[in-house]
């Protein structure tokens, strides 16, 4: 529509201006569209520019700069930097530590996502039943999701304290001794995973619950009439019907799991011996602890690529696969 | 017709199992928070007593006083309140203006601007750490409250939520005001805003909770205690209070961080849950 107005020779816009009866001059005709709606356009710019300028400055600009920084040997805060091309990437891909970081990231992501989805679905099916107190339970279960990761990490760090924590007291009742959650790499990773699932479980449960409530009743009734038992109906009808939700949750929880920082920083600081250092945590450590900002930016780019591939994969997959109706 | 059979099939036993599951899930969430509150009232002797002493002997707020003495918790609290209030209100205002513009004001190429919002939604936060740190530090924003707030002000999420809501409003609402000759600002303030109050409340609450909990950015941009927000100050307390006896004080500090959000959530959880799970519904 805008194009047709621009190419149209008539100068409807200028009819509003005081000198309309005069022969329209060239610039006026070309900008008639803008003149006619000038007030409207200026209002739009006034409304939209502050937010978009902030987004451009603090979201888009970093995207470009990060790519540039990743080609530098540069310490944070230093005035001098050396262009070293792809050396930071080469270094990361050849450093044996990276393999360890990838291992930790993979275990952390798979475990948190798997547990969050399975337990979330189980909880949602219970919340979906007409039980007393389920609205209350739904709210309570969601609450940890809105709490500060730092605060949650601190509370659980005390619970996991191998000598004075609540968990060790419970284990002692059963005659077991608490693992060394703070000192053993594997147990530390388990600890962080457990707390992450505790914090995010409610989100998956509430989303699954919404999906369960939209499963058509007559489909389930038809299955019951055909003699399908409860568990068979659940696995062969409900779960397949939930596949778009499951897919959505896999993507969103993988993305947030890959970017989790607060819990790890408070509970383990990536340790012991890098046992809980994920890619995201490595980005932080390299930039703000060891100060190798160029190297950190390269790792940022690698993590970004992983996230981007997943997001784009989600879009492709949603378009092609997850249509069932 | 199907109702009687359904209720008949539902024997008391599964209902009991369901209730037990709900109770279990609720306890798993509530007990750690109860443990935090109880521990925050325990003396250091009670914290390290073996076998464990579950309940504190007195409810004197000694650990809260001690937390405030060891680190400036009053200051942290004030900083968090300022950062949250200023950050969240500016965020909501910017989101409102942008979403209103994208829906109700005529402008060529609005689709491109909206696409820009969607792309910004997908840019992960870690990408901006080093570039924004360099920029804000260069402007002298290290160890300032504006340095904490500024980079997060531009909001793609709030804009997205409000735009989707505005699109669902009937056009006639705004057209009546247009005929009365009301300008866009008047239309936003006196018509579109009021009818959108629940959605605005949702965006506001999510922004408030987000600002309050924000950790990584304030952590890197501030290192003097006087300008730390609560989550950052809490880790400062963790660093200067080593050893098991400090748990009581640390739990008191943690309560400063968690309890305000729990209260807000308890009062307004309907809006918060709706907003945070919106992506699943619209996406």
Characterization of this structure:
- The complex is a heterodimer of chains A (325) and B (283).
- In chain A, 71% of the residues lie in helices and 2% in strands.
- With 325 residues, chain A is mainly α.
- In chain A, a hairpin with a 6-residue loop joins strand 1 (72-74) and strand 2.
- In chain A, helix 4 (38-69) packs across helix 16, helix 6 (96-127) crosses helix 13 (243-258) and helix 10 packs antiparallel against helix 13 (243-258).
- The interface between A and B is large, with 96 and 94 residues.
Strand order of the largest sheet of chain A: 1-2
Structural class of chain A, by secondary structure, is: mainly alpha
Elements of chain B, N to C (H/E): HHHHHHHHHHHHHHHH
Oligomer: heterodimer
Number of helices of chain A: 16
Sheet with the most strands, sense and barrel status of chain B: none
What about the largest sheet of chain A?
2 strands, antiparallel
Largest interface: A-B, 96 and 94 residues
Q: Runs of chain B with pLDDT <50, length 5+?
A: 1-10
What share of the residues of chain A does DSSP label as strand, in percent?
under 5%
Q: Give the overall shape of chain B, derived from the CA principal axes.
A: globular
Mean pLDDT of chain A: 85
